[in-house]
Structure formats: structure tokens, C-alpha cells
């Protein structure tokens, strides 16, 4: 228990292994060699190592090397040094060759059973007997990356599978080095565990009627420790007496009685509450709540109670599972198959519907608070999921403070970390209970950023950073099932998890530009041009909702394009603002983003790969019903892994020469690839050769080219 | 109730030159998607205007619809039978997604003059009246920029570096006697032109409507070309034509970098085969040619697809089934197949340095889409405002895309099977490219929407009639009407994209249109929908968040700053 190292100590502990020169990687000219010497955490020990296995992230060429499994991470060390094209993000993990075990969503193994060479995967739910021989392992991470390990030449496959299962599924059994209880004084703790934070928040929100609310010290006022889900201090209407609160806490589920979380500038409050237990006294308690909240309103308006769906968690679990099936893919053939009826497939996940529902509920709440000047109480069965999503969204929409980076940190601190969202259960439960409400919230927020690009000081990269930090087990905040008695270290700012190459992407260039333009207009015309709004509205129409591809598809190279999309546009805007600032006084603008020659639309997650020019519209479904794609059918029937007698040949052509992959040529391999590595891509079995006309020309293979998605400077 | 003003008098601020008032109905109810709004309707020679009575909702509910938008006027209810006040009235169906429903006063028969005026002036061809474009041009001052001259074939070809030693003009069609759907000025391989006009006529005989393969675009460095034509008249017997084969070989020979001509037949192979029964067909066993079908569906499929898309979006979005309905409409799949084809052409021309020949059946719908999109990707000039105008004038107007039939300008034939949103599909594709590669375009999507609106509105002559011959020779549009490009170039600043970097933009865009990159163009298709968030939408106006949605407001401000800076810089330059 004394092993805890704060991140700062950790950081200073390995100066020597600091990040390789990232400037050159950003330019994509000089490639730096991947480093495998990211130090282990204190207390992290190597448990198992398998040499001579083939390891690949989704869509990548399998490489031969050694897999090392510790109690916190899985690391792959290639036999030959690998180069890096994209900047490194995480301070703790070298993302291109290792990942934390707690971010594993599910493990699938293929056993050597029969003589057939088919690789048949089945999900690993319990330990396998040491008599079985594991030949392949496929791991799906919670961020939809897919890792394949070919262990046919290794002895330790079974042990590795069991090891992975143990550490992935029981993170609470062996305390993770990073999450062990702290001995030393934490540097900064989660804010809203303190009274002052609530007081400041109350003061900030309530320009009128601050006296209508009071801070409740739960340790003092509730005899028994009923509200263990709440932080020690919460805010309630000042007309609630100690007995009121005690009674409400006893009758509300989990003791989560109605508390204040935020007030609009007009004085209407937003409150959250769990459901009251149904019994004879319930109506009386309800009227007590309504009266108390009404008294706290500046115009004594009765509050509006919005009930949220009880079914919410089950829907999120289902939606996430379906989303995983849709997006966690690792081969071009899977990508191509999903091209057909893509929108229907997205629709069938139900995830976009969930996003729409949240947006509509938020719009409803906003309508009451902003337009009708009524307080709103969001009630949910346990008020730990949907209420937090919608509560947070309401605040983000109606209060521009939360659209700044620090404001968002504060909001997450208040609504998610302090008010007891059970991250431990929702994110680290087994895959039947995994219920990333948190991801749904980030998704909704990303939709808002997409629709209102100028209104948010942060970009969706910050949201991705938040999600990645939360599933990497790097902070105890995102690991606990309940609010603890001892406050956690604050996970904010996120710089403690990520390098500056990534955190600088958190700035929203549109917002920066809009602010600068507004200031300029004020100087020029003496009036502001009102690019900024205090209140924005959530979309209520499903037509405005899109799948958050920047998150779910971000590890999928074929979904990316070079020099296009938001990253490039932001960097162009960046340079434009630079030019404008140069030509006039009083305006400062510093170039904030790297502008390499090639910038992938999914920077910094993946780059388009070489195998691209696929005529998607010609691809026929082999089985129209692959919505039930299991991992078993995910792997193509054969050849998904290097064939032993196939070595020394780098081949990317589908086995059927007339299949629809038009331009068949090798991926531009990193210059230092081990030539003993064979690389045959999955055979596109899904592609029906007959779908292609015979009249197709037998043109010679196209000459090597950089990437079909690239743009070529000609003049 | 109805009154007409003398021409030239301007009664309202919004009135355009030559826009006479025709009918005014003061007691009408507009049944909007969000409720009934009483007000008045004014029908002029150009538009249908609704003004709400209630001054509060005035700003939000007033709207104008140019009469050219009207696709069908439908009367609902019967004056003596129908009960209920909103069951009697009329529905105005529009060529873009929306329709407008009015409830009229049953007792006063006020519907009759309205409907009569609408039918008369919305369908001027059916009632033997001139297009509004003609009246507008008569009353309007001559524009400072003449849009009719923006596309001069010889100037445009000279920009591309032809004629040269391999390509030259032919005078075979100067009087439109050879191919009446083709432009006057045609660029053919020099070898073929030298052979005599008889040779070209023989090639013409083997091509549907004499639309022989002619040059659209030539690569400035590699001499790889994009040529376009109609289908060969192979027929059921797969007839061969030596002249046609010789002609194609001339095209191959004009490009030293490749020994093969890639022929892209835009149709699905089945359709091409079926066409043989009608005398058409495709190039089979041509020497040095490789044929590929691009699997793009015909105008009827596209029309049906848009109808389904519209159903999913208007009047209200089907919350539950929207995604499935959009998917089933296959609109995005059609967009994808076109973009894939165009990208393929661009790729072959740029990277493989091959010459390509593009055709479909007649070579004026899918061919125009493919060549213009490929050229847009290949040549940065077409991504400027002028260039885009030239592109449309060249590939669409001059090569005889049948705008009149496809849109149904001024005709009361709503069921006409010749109608199809082919041009809309092209603009949608441009928008899809722009969504990804916006900073390579000098203009923003505002220009695209403007073009689509003026396409239906018939205020300008650019999109009237079916071919260059009809437009210029028969109807003398360049004299009697004003070109859309005059208007667009005069208001140029409205469409400029501040993020455009002309020095960086000289690149070739080679994209892979995966369906993940394609989206429904909400800004256009969803703009009449009351609950869709878009600048200018009803909900945005209601909450006054128009300037917060999207980045348009920011980009406009940035453009204003740039323009100011440019203005301030000019005097400095002169002193230096």
C-alpha cells in the first residue's frame, strides 16, 4: 500500500526516458524509432513473456517479436525497431505497442483443437485449462482497438490468455500500482469534496438569491451514513431543515435526496434527485420538496420535475455493445462489408437514438429553466447516470463558463466525480455490466461542439483525452464504485496523463478565432459582433445527430483521409489568424497547431494506409445479416495471420485476383520492417468476385504511390 | 382583391425589376409545420410571398418562394362540400424538398384567382408566356460583368494549353448541323481532324446523336486527357465501326504516356447490355481500350431516391426511422458511386497518366457528373468561383445537359419521367468534397445553395432550355436574359471562403469516398424543417442562435476583415 507514486514524481523519475523528439515526427519527415523503455510503474512487475509471436493492432501488419505481460499492461517488443509517424500521446503507455490491461473490453481466443486450419475465436470468460493450447488471441479494447496476437510459435499462449483474463476482469483483486491507496498527501484533490468549492459555485451561479440555498454538511446532519454516494457537502434549499433532509435521505434511493447543482442567471435552479421510495408518506414528502424548492426560487415558481428513463442503463449497455460490434474492426474486408447499409447499421446500434434522447431531454429542461424561468428537478431511479448526463448538458448549454476548459473540468469534478457516478462499475465492470454513460455524455458534448464550433473553448480532442484517461486506469477517480470518504487526487488538468503534443489539440481553433474576431470588432466598431452566445440549444432532431466518428472510428486507417477534415482546417485557420494578427496592432495570435505536410483527418490516432482505392459501391455482402457478427466471423476464414511458408514475401493482394480490390499493392511499409516478417492481409472473402464485370481491363498494376488519399502538389 | 401595378413602379422594397404584382389575398392561413399563421399572400410575376398578419411572428414566418420552384399546385377540398376551415385551400409543392399548405376562405372563392395566377405564371411555357428571366433582363440595368462571356471555349482551351500539335478545333459543328446537342466549338485529335470531316461524320454515325468523343480536359504536363461522348451504336449485332476505332486510337496516340484508353461507361453493365436492344451498347473488343462500368444508376432511380430521402426529412423528420429511411433511399449510395467513379477517373489521369473516355447512354447526365467532378478534383482552377462557373457552363450547359427537361422549367408536367435531380446530385457531390477539403475551394457552400436556388427560380437565363443551340441560337438567351454568373460575380464577396489558400490550393484532390465520409446535406435538405439546427432555420431564429451555429458567421467576419485589409493595402501599394 505504500507503493503509490504521484504522477509528478513518476514524471520526474524517468527524465532519461523522455519522449523522443516529437517535432520531427509531427513533420513526418524524420521518423523516430519507437522506444520500448517506458518505465514500469512502481510495483508493476513482469508476469509473463512470450517470445516469437506475431502481434498486430487493427489493420496493421503483424510483426514478430516478444509480448510482455505485467500486472498493468501488455507490451509488445518487436524484433526489429519500429518507427513512429504520429506523435506520442500518453505519458504512461507507448500507445503503438502497449496498452493498459484495464482497458480490455473482451478477450477472444482460438484453441488448437482439430486438424482444420480454420481459426475459430470464442470469447474467454473463464480460465482455460492448461491442457488447451491457445493459438491466437484477439483483444478488443474499450476504445474499440483490436489487437491480434498469433501464438502458434510460442509455448505460453494459454498462460498469457489466463493472465490477461485475470488482470482485465478483476482489477479490484490485485490493486493496480497506479490506483493503490495514497500514503502521501495528494497535491490537488477533487474540488467539490470541500465546502469552499460549493460556496464558490453557489456564489458564482446565484447573483440573485444566494441566500435561498444552504450548504449541508452531511456528516453533521444525517445521523446514519445514508448518503454515501454524495460528497460530504451538498447544497439544498435553505428552507430544508435538518429533519427534512434526514427524512428525505431516508426515503430517497441510495439516500440521494434532491440537491442543488446549478442556477441559471435568472435564478431558476437545476437539481438532481433519485426516486423516492413509494409508500404512504411519499406524496407528503413530494410536496415538501416542491414547496422548499419553490421558496428558493426568486419568483417562488413551482419547480418542474423531469423523470428520466429507468431503462437508461440497460439501453446504454446495449448500445455500447452494438457500437463495439460495428466499430471494433481490424480488417479491410470487415470495413468494406460495413460500407453497405452503413446508416442502417448505425441506426440499429441504438446509440444515436440514445444521444438524440439525451439531447431532447436537455432541450426540455432548458426550455423550463431558460424560457419559462422555472426550476427543474431531474429525477432518475438512482440519479447517478442519466441525471448526470442531462444535468451536465443543461449547464453546458446555458452557462458559457462550462464551455471553457477549466469550466468543463469543474463541471466534471462537480457532476461526475463528486456526485458519485460509479465509474468503477460502469467502466470496469464485466462486459455484461459495462455501461459507459460517461462516454454517452462525451458523445453528446462532441455533437454540440460539432454544431457550435465557435462556442466551445475546447475541441473534441479534450473529450477523447478524458475518455482515454478514464479507461486507462490512470486515475483513481475513474476507478471507484462509490464516493470514498477520502477525496481523490484530481485528474485535472489532463497534462498529467498526456504529452503536450496531444494536449495542444485541446484548443478549439474556431473558438479562439471567434473570440479574436469579436475583440477586433469591438475595437473597430465599438460594438461586439455577438459571435458568442450565452445560451445554446441542443439539437432536437435526429437529423442533426451524427455518429461520433472521431471517437469510434479513430483507430481505423481506411476511415481517415490525408489533408482533409477538421485537423487540416484548424491548422489553416490557425495560419490565417496569424496573418491577420501580423497585419494589425493590438491582436496577438500564436501559432498553436503543428502544420505538417500531411495531416490525417484522424490525427493523431491513425493515418490512411496504402490499400485504399476500393470500389465500395461494388462490394456485395456475402451474408446480409452480419449484424450479429461475432468475433468468430470477424476473423476471416484463413490467412488472417502470417502463414509460416509465406515468409519473405510482402503481399497485400487478395487471394482471388479478380476480387474488387482494384489497386492491389503493398502498403508502404515502414522502412525498417523486418523482412522475415510476412504480411498477407486478410483475404477479402466477403467480396463476391462475380460482382465485378468481366470486361474490366487487365491493366498492369498501378505504379507505387504514396497514398491515394493524398493530395499532390503539381504546379 | 387583385390589383396590378404599372410596370416599373416599385411598391415594395423586395420587388425586383420587372416583377409585377398579380394577385394579393389578405385572408389566407399558412399551415406551417409549427401551426397555423394567418396572413396575406402576394403573387407577383416572380414569386409567391407570404406575410404574417401577426407582427410578432412576422420576422420568422414571412417567406418568399420564386414561382419557378413550384412543381405542382394542388387544390384541396371542395368549395361546397368540405367542412372545417383548414381543409379547404391549396398545397404548393416545390421542386426542392418543401411544400406549402394554405387554407383559404371558403365563402369568398378567394382560392380561384390564386390558383389561376399560380398556374399561369409558375408554368409560363404551358401558358405561352415568357420566362420571368426575360422580363427581369428588360427592366434590369445591364450588369457590369457579363456572365455570358465568362466561358469562352477558346479561352478555356487556351488556358489548358490546346490546341497543340496533337489536338485541334474542328469546324464541323459551327452551325450545330452535325450534333445539335453539342457545343459549337469542339476539340478533337489532330490526326482525326486532318483526316476530313467525313471521317468525323462516320464516327458520329456510330455514336448516339452524333455525340462523338471530344476533349473536355487535358493534363498540362502529361497530356492525359478526359474525353466525353455518348454510347456507341453497337446494337444487338454488336456492329463495329472502323472509323470509331480509328478515332479512339487517335486519342490513345495523343498521349505518349500510356498505350491504352480507359473507357468508363457510367452505367451498370446490365443497363448497357439492355441498351443494345435499342441500338446502343458499349465498346467491345476495341484495340488498346479497356472498358469499365461504373455502376451509376439512371435518372429514374435517382429521382425515386430523392423522393424517398425527402420523405424521411420533410415535413418532419421521422425520429424513429430517419436513419433507416435515409439508408433505404440510397441517396448517399448513389452519391458514393458517382464520387467513386470521378475519383477513379482523376486517379487514372493524374497517377497513371492514362487518357480516359467517359460516356453513359447519351452523355449528358452521368457523363457530365463524372467529367465535371473529376476535373474539379484535378484542376485547382475549377475550385475558384470563376472556374466553377466555367466548369458548369462547359460541362453542363454547353454539352447539352437537358436542364429544361430535368428540372421542368415552366411546364406543368409534374409526372414527367424526364425529370430528375441530376444536377442537384452533382452539387451534392461537390458539397461532400468541400466538407472534407473545404480549404481548397475559393467559395463556400453558400454558393452551392445559391446556384441550386437560381436553378429553379428562372430569374437568370443560364439554366434555361436544353442545349447550347436552343439557348443561344433559338432563344438568344445571351441577349434576352441575364446570366446567373453576372449576378454571382457581382456579389462575389458573399461566397468567398477566407480559409482558401490559393498558393496551397494548387493540388489534386484524390479521395476515397467511403460512406463514412458522406453525409446528408442538412444545410440544404433540412433548411425548411422547423426543428433542424442550421443557420436560418426556424428553430435558430426562434432562439436567436443563428450566429452561433456552424462556422458561417465566423467565416463571414473573417472575410470582412480580409477584404478590409485588402482595401487598406491598396493605396499603400500605389505609393510604393
From TrEMBL, chain A:
Region spans: Disordered: 635-715
Listed InterPro entries: Myotubularin, Myotubularin-like_Pase_dom, Prot-tyrosine_phosphatase-like
Family matches, as Pfam families: Myotub-related
Alphabetical GO biological process terms: phosphatidylinositol dephosphorylation
Residues in Myotubularin phosphatase domain copies: 192-552
Biased composition (Polar residues): 673-691
GO cellular component: cytoplasm; membrane
Family membership: Belongs to the protein-tyrosine phosphatase family. Non-receptor class myotubularin subfamily.
Protein name: Myotubularin phosphatase domain-containing protein
Species annotation: Diploscapter pachys
From TrEMBL, chain B:
Binding-site positions, substrate: 275-278, 298-299, 360-366
Domain Myotubularin phosphatase span(s) in chain numbering: 147-525
EC number(s) on file: 3.1.3.95
Family annotation (Pfam families): GRAM, Myotub-related
CDD domains given in the database record: PTP-MTM-like (cd14507)
UniProt GO BP: phosphatidylinositol dephosphorylation
Example of a GO MF term: phosphatidylinositol-3,5-bisphosphate 3-phosphatase activity
Domain of life: Eukaryota
Top EC class of this enzyme: hydrolase
GO cellular component, one term: membrane
Record-linked Gene3D superfamilies: Pleckstrin-homology domain (PH domain)/Phosphotyrosine-binding domain (PTB)
Active site: residue positions: 360
UniProt keyword list: Lipid metabolism
Similarity comment: family membership: Belongs to the protein-tyrosine phosphatase family. Non-receptor class myotubularin subfamily.
PANTHER family in the record: MYOTUBULARIN-RELATED, PHOSPHATIDYLINOSITOL-3,5-BISPHOSPHATE 3-PHOSPHATASE
Name listed for the protein in its UniProt record: phosphatidylinositol-3,5-bisphosphate 3-phosphatase
Organism of provenance: Diploscapter pachys
Amino acid at each position: 500500500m505504500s507503493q503509490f507514486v504521484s504522477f509528478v514524481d513518476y514524471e520526474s523519475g524517468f527524465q532519461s526516458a523522455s519522449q523522443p523528439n516529437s517535432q520531427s515526427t509531427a513533420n513526418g519527415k524524420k521518423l523516430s524509432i519507437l522506444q520500448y523503455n517506458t518505465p514500469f510503474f512502481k510495483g508493476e512487475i513482469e508476469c509473463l513473456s512470450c517470445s516469437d509471436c506475431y502481434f498486430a493492432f487493427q489493420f496493421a501488419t503483424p510483426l514478430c517479436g516478444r509480448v510482455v505481460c505485467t500486472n498493468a499492461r501488455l507490451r509488445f517488443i518487436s524484433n526489429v525497431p519500429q518507427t513512429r509517424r504520429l506523435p506520442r500521446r500518453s505519458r504512461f503507455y507507448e500507445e503503438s505497442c502497449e496498452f493498459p490491461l484495464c482497458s480490455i473490453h473482451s478477450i477472444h481466443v482460438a484453441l488448437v483443437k482439430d486438424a482444420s486450419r480454420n481459426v475459430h475465436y470464442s470469447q474467454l470468460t473463464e480460465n482455460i485449462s492448461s491442457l488447451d493450447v491457445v493459438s491466437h488471441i484477439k483483444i478488443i479494447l474499450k476504445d474499440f482497438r483490436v489487437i491480434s496476437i498469433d501464438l502458434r510459435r510460442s509455448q505460453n499462449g494459454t498462460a498469457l490468455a489466463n493472465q490477461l483474463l485475470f488482470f482485465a476482469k478483476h482489477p479490484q483483486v490485485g490493486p493496480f500500482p497506479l490506483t493503490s491507496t495514497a500514503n502521501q498527501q495528494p497535491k490537488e484533490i477533487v474540488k467539490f469534496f470541500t465546502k469552499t468549492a460549493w460556496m464558490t459555485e453557489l456564489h458564482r451561479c446565484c447573483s440573485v438569491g444566494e441566500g435561498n440555498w444552504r450548504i449541508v454538511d452531511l456528516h453533521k446532519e444525517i445521523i446514519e451514513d445514508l448518503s454515501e454516494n454524495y460528497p460530504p457537502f451538498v447544497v439544498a434549499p435553505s428552507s430544508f431543515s435538518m429533519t427534512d433532509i434526514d427524512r428525505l435521505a431516508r426515503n430517497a434511493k441510495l439516500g440521494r435526496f434532491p440537491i442543488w447543482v446549478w442556477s441559471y442567471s435568472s435564478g431558476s435552479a437545476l437539481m438532481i434527485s433519485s426516486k423516492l421510495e413509494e409508500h404512504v408518506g411519499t406524496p407528503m414528502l413530494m410536496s415538501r420538496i416542491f414547496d422548499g424548492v419553490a421558496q428558493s426560487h426568486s419568483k417562488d415558481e413551482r419547480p418542474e420535475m423531469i423523470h428520466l428513463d429507468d431503462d437508461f442503463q440497460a439501453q446504454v449497455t446495449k448500445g455500447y455493445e452494438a457500437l463495439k460490434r460495428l466499430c471494433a474492426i481490424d480488417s479491410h474486408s470487415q470495413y468494406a462489408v460495413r460500407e453497405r447499409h452503413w446508416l442502417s447499421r448505425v441506426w440499429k446500434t441504438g446509440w444515436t437514438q440514445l444521444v438524440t434522447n439525451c439531447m431532447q431531454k436537455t432541450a426540455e429542461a432548458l426550455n423550463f429553466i431558460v424560457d419559462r424561468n422555472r426550476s427543474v428537478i431531474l429525477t432518475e431511479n438512482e440519479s447517478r447516470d442519466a441525471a448526470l448526463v442531462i444535468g451536465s448538458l443543461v449547464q453546458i448549454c446555458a452557462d458559457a463558463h462550462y464551455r471553457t476548459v477549466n469550466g468543463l473540468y469543474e463541471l466534471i469534478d462537480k457532476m461526475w466525480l463528486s456526485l458519485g457516478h460509479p465509474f468503477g462499475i460502469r467502466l470496469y465492470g464485466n462486459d455484461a455490466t459495462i455501461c459507459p454513460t460517461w462516454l454517452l455524455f462525451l458523445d453528446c458534448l462532441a455533437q454540440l461542439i460539432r454544431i457550435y464550433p465557435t462556442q466551445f473553448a475546447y475541441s473534441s480532442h479534450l473529450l477523447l483525452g478524458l475518455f482515454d484517461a478514464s479507461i486507462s486506469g490512470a486515475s483513481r477517480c475513474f476507478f471507484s464504485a462509490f464516493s470514498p470518504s477520502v477525496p481523490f487526487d484530481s485528474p485535472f488538468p489532463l497534462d498529467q496523463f498526456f504529452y503536450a503534443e496531444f494536449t495542444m489539440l485541446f484548443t478549439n481553433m474556431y473558438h479562439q478565432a471567434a473570440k479574436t474576431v469579436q475583440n477586433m470588432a469591438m475595437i473597430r466598431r465599438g460594438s461586439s459582433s455577438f459571435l458568442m452566445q450565452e445560451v445554446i440549444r441542443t439539437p432536437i432532431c435526429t437529423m442533426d445527430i451524427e455518429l461520433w466518428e472521431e471517437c469510434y472510428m479513430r483507430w481505423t486507417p481506411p476511415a481517415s483521409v490525408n489533408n482533409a477534415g477538421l485537423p487540416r482546417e484548424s491548422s489553416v485557420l490557425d495560419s490565417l489568424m496569424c496573418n491577420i494578427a501580423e497585419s494589425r496592432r493590438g491582436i496577438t495570435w500564436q501559432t498553436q497547431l503543428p502544420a505538417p505536410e500531411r495531416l490525417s483527418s484522424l490525427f493523431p490516432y491513425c493515418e490512411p494506409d496504402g490499400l485504399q482505392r476500393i470500389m465500395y459501391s461494388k462490394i456485395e455482402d456475402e451474408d446480409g445479416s452480419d449484424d450479429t457478427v461475432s468475433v468468430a466471423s470477424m476473423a476471416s476464414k484463413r490467412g488472417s495471420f502470417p502463414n509460416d511458408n509465406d515468409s519473405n514475401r510482402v503481399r497485400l493482394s487478395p487471394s482471388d485476383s479478380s476480387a474488387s480490390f482494384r489497386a492491389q499493392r503493398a502498403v508502404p511499409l515502414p522502412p525498417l520492417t523486418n523482412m522475415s516478417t510476412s504480411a498477407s492481409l486478410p483475404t477479402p472473402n466477403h467480396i463476391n468476385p462475380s460482382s465485378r464485370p468481366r470486361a474490366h481491363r487487365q491493366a498492369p498494376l498501378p505504379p507505387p504511390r504514396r497514398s491515394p488519399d493524398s493530395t499532390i502538389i503539381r504546379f | 382583391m387583385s390589383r396590378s401595378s404599372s410596370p416599373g413602379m416599385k411598391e415594395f422594397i423586395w420587388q425586383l425589376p420587372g416583377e409585377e404584382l398579380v394577385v394579393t389575398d389578405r385572408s389566407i392561413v399558412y399551415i406551417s409545420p409549427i401551426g397555423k399563421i394567418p396572413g396575406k399572400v402576394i403573387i407577383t410575376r416572380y414569386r409567391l410571398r407570404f406575410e404574417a398578419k401577426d407582427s410578432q411572428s412576422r420576422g420568422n414566418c414571412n417567406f418568399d418562394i420564386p414561382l419557378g420552384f413550384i412543381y405542382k399546385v394542388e387544390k384541396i377540398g371542395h368549395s361546397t362540400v368540405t367542412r372545417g376551415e383548414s381543409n379547404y385551400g391549396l398545397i404548393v409543392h416545390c421542386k426542392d424538398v418543401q411544400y406549402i399548405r394554405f387554407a383559404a376562405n371558403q365563402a369568398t372563392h378567394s382560392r380561384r384567382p390564386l390558383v389561376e395566377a399560380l398556374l399561369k405564371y409558375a408554368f409560363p411555357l404551358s401558358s405561352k408566356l415568357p420566362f420571368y428571366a426575360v422580363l427581369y433582363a428588360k427592366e434590369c440595368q445591364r450588369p457590369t460583368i457579363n456572365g455570358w462571356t465568362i466561358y469562352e471555349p477558346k479561352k478555356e482551351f487556351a488556358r489548358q494549353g490546346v490546341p497543340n500539335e496533337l489536338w485541334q478545333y474542328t469546324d464541323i459543328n459551327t452551325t450545330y448541323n452535325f450534333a445539335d446537342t453539342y457545343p459549337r466549338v469542339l476539340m478533337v485529335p489532330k490526326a482525326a481532324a486532318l483526316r476530313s470531316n467525313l471521317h468525323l461524320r462516320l464516327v458520329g454515325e456510330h455514336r448516339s446523336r452524333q455525340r462523338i468523343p471530344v476533349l473536355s480536359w487535358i493534363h498540362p504536363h502529361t497530356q492525359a486527357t478526359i474525353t466525353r461522348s455518348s454510347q456507341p451504336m453497337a446494337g444487338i449485332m454488336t456492329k463495329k465501326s472502323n472509323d470509331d476505332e480509328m478515332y479512339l486510337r487517335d486519342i490513345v496516340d495523343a498521349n505518349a504516356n500510356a498505350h491504352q484508353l480507359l473507357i468508363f461507361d457510367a452505367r451498370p453493365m446490365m443497363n448497357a447490355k439492355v441498351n443494345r436492344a435499342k441500338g446502343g451498347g458499349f465498346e467491345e473488343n476495341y484495340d488498346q481500350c479497356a472498358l469499365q462500368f461504373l455502376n451509376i444508376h439512371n435518372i429514374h432511380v435517382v429521382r425515386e431516391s430523392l423522393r424517398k430521402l425527402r420523405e424521411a426529412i420533410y415535413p418532419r423528420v421521422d425520429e424513429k426511422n430517419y436513419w433507416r429511411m435515409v439508408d433505404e433511399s440510397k441517396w448517399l449510395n448513389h452519391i458514393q458511386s458517382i464520387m467513386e467513379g470521378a475519383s477513379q477517373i482523376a486517379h487514372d489521369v493524374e497517377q497513371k497518366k492514362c487518357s480516359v473516355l467517359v460516356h453513359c447512354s447519351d452523355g449528358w447526365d452521368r457523363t457530365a457528373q463524372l467529367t465535371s467532378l473529376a476535373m474539379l478534383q484535378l484542376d485547382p482552377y475549377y475550385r475558384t468561383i470563376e472556374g466553377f462557373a466555367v466548369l458548369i457552363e462547359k460541362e453542363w450547359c454547353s454539352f447539352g445537359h437537358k436542364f429544361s427537361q430535368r428540372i421542368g422549367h415552366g411546364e406543368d408536367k409534374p409526372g414527367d419521367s424526364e425529370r430528375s435531380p441530376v444536377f442537384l446530385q452533382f452539387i451534392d457531390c461537390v458539397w461532400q468534397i468541400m466538407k472534407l477539403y473545404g480549404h481548397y475551394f475559393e467559395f463556400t457552400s453558400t454558393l452551392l445553395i445559391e446556384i441550386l436556388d437560381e436553378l429553379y427560380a428562372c430569374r437568370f437565363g443560364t439554366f434555361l432550355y436544353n442545349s447550347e443551340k436552343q439557348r443561344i441560337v433559338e432563344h438568344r438567351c445571351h441577349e434576352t436574359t441575364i446570366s446567373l454568373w453576372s449576378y454571382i460575380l457581382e456579389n462575389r464577396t458573399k461566397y468567398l471562403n477566407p480559409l482558401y489558400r490559393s498558393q496551397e490550393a494548387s493540388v489534386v484532390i484524390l479521395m476515397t469516398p467511403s460512406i463514412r465520409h458522406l453525409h446528408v446535406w442538412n444545410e440544404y435538405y433540412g433548411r425548411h424543417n422547423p426543428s433542424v439546427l442550421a443557420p436560418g432555420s426556424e428553430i435558430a431564429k426562434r432562439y436567436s442562435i443563428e450566429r452561433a451555429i456552424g462556422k458561417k458567421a465566423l467565416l463571414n467576419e473573417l472575410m470582412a476583415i480580409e477584404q478590409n485589409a485588402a482595401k487598406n493595402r491598396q493605396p499603400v501599394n500605389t505609393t510604393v
